[in-house]
Amino acid sequence: MSYDKLNEKIMDMQDEIIKAVQGCVQIDSVKAAPEEGAPYGKGCRAALDYALKLGESLGFKTGNVGNRVGYVEFGEGDEMVGVLGHLDVVPVGEGWTYPPFGAEIHDGKLYGRGVQDDKGPTIGAIYGLKAIRDLGLPINRRIRVLFGTDEENGSSCVRYYIENGGELPTLGFTPDGDYPLIFCEKGAHNMLVGKKITDPGKIKVKSFHGGIAANVVTPYCKLVVEGDIPVAEVEGVRVHKEGNDTIVEADGFGAHGSTPEKGINAAERLFEAVKDVDFGGDFQHMINFVRNELNGETNGKTLGIYYQDDETGETTVNLGVVNYDGEEMSLTLDIRYPKNAVVADVSANVEAALKKEDMGVLRCIITPILYISKETPLIKKLCKVYAEETGEHLEPLAIGGGTYAKAFKNMVAFGPEFPGQGSAIHQPNEFVEIDKMMKSCQIVAAAMYELAQKD
Question: Which family does it belong to (predicted)?
Answer without folding.
Answer: Belongs to the peptidase M20A family.
